[in-house]
Amino acid sequence: MAVLHLKAKPNGRQNALQVASDGTVTVRLHAPAQDGKANACLLAYLAEVFRLPKSQFTLLSGHTAPFKKVELAGVSEEELRVALAPFTAS
């Protein structure tokens, strides 16, 4: 089980994931931060990015904050690093 620490930025033009050179993960979301829409959008987008079912993603903390922890069931820390590599800013 891997845990992804990230910063969510709602109300973006489109969904996008970016990993800074220091390893900070930022996810821009099209959905507004209202009534859990951004959190639902976040989990759906992560499922799309990692090509896993939405049921494997659980929001552990940050339900009402920009900094979030998301659990990826059945994914190792190494698999998480490999999956995030294409999103690293050069």
UniProtKB/TrEMBL annotation:
Pfam families referenced in this protein's UniProt entry, alphabetically: DUF167 (PF02594)
SUPFAM superfamilies assigned to the protein according to its UniProt record, in alphabetical order: YggU-like
Record field: transmembrane: none
Family of this protein: Belongs to the UPF0235 family.
Protein name: UPF0235 protein IC231_12315
Organism placement in taxonomy: Bacteria, Pseudomonadati, Bacteroidota, Cytophagia, Cytophagales
